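Tutorial, part two.
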Amino acid sequence: MRSMPYRRKRLLICARFPGDNLPTRNRNEPHNMTNRRPERQKLERLLPWHAARTLSRREADLVERALAADTELARRYDLIRQELAETIHLNETLGAPSARATEKLFAAIEAEEARTPRRRRISRAPARL
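Running the prediction step on this input gives:
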């Protein structure tokens, strides 16, 4: 099984965010961290993870510095935080499933387990003779 950071990187590579199709930087613009296209894309892709507070300390510091230097990036971060708050609120208002739905789910799980043959566990220890 791969580590969590690897999976996060794979998700970020596959994710598409608004602004991914922005034109490249103008040669007359200052060449700082947020104006360079690949770094900007990486930072934008880290914003949802930063809002959820799941970044490493190093990545969080990188995002914080970029947010302080780039108002457009800060605006996008505010939108992401609002969306996260709305999603959490919506999920909390949904409540738990009914007792009937829970019973039905567990019955389906038990039926599936009964149909599926148990796999024999293979030991990695050498066989004894």
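Residues 6-25 have pLDDT under 50 and may be disordered. In part three we will examine how such features are distributed along the chain.
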